[in-house]
């Protein structure tokens, strides 16, 4: 991605409800950001063109938005992936990118950024349990990295843990709403810092970066498989109550899942964290008698 270091670079963020966490406008000496957020937005929605990004980019309003910059970050995906198989969503995204670059030739591939799909605990009619839903999200994210090489777009891996989700299991908890924008801002800031480095320094290709990120994520998942704590859990305990309880007791974890047969899986990034949690959480800590409202 190439920007001129002598001018202020403008970015446009097109987002679903996650964009509500971002300021509508951000201005620094090196770049400016405008965020346009639509709750419920999908890559493709055959039932509502107002929530259909494929249709929206063909309107005069979006044509005007795109004329202000050639640097666009798409924070979209969760509303599609909650309701459709990952392969279908990627096919929609493929068609969307083809249309985007056909209609707006000034948008070169290196100036488009797509975020990964964040985790979600809000089940849908298609995905009736958390495990199925998260598997679909993970698969979408893997396919997204593969698709990015076809169009040479960049992928911003949000790397959000389940702990960041609010009570509805879909949106960012108010506790983390100030932290979430930093993920976006740091990424954009790094782009500018990268541009200011010597042009003689060769940068790694997006393929190598994606390969490194995949290896890093795989390593993290392998570590977590060996650092997982399992506890029985009663029906009263929701994700909201568990997160508040763990936060209250200063127990650090990466993510959690409530699986069938009333079992809670707590994933940690290393064994010492798991061992400390194991000592603090008795076998029956999540039964009805110890229910924590928080």
Quick structural overview:
InterPro entries: SGNH_hydro_sf (IPR036514). The protein has 9 helices and 9 strands.
Write structural notes for this entry.
- The structure is a single chain.
- The protein is of the alpha/beta class.
- It has 2 domains: 210 residues, 3-Layer(aba) Sandwich (Rossmann fold), CATH 3.40.50; 65 residues, RRM (RNA recognition motif) domain (Alpha-Beta Plaits, 2-Layer Sandwich).
- It has 9 helices and 9 strands.
- The protein has a 6-stranded mixed sheet, with helices on both faces. The protein has a 3-stranded antiparallel sheet with strand order 7-9-8, covered by helices on one side.
- The N and C termini lie far apart (46 Å).
Keywords:
294 residues, alpha/beta, Rossmann fold, Alpha-Beta Plaits, six-stranded mixed β-sheet, three-stranded antiparallel β-sheet, 9 strands, 38% helix, elongated, disordered N terminus, SGNH_hydro_sf
Global Rg: 21 Å
CATH architecture of the largest domain: 3-Layer(aba) Sandwich
In whole angstroms, how far apart are the ends? 46 Å
Write down the CATH topology of the largest domain.
Answer: Rossmann fold
Unreliable residue stretches: 1-6, 198-203
Name of the CATH homologous superfamily of the largest domain? SGNH hydrolase
CATH class of the largest domain equals Alpha Beta
InterPro entries: SGNH_hydro_sf
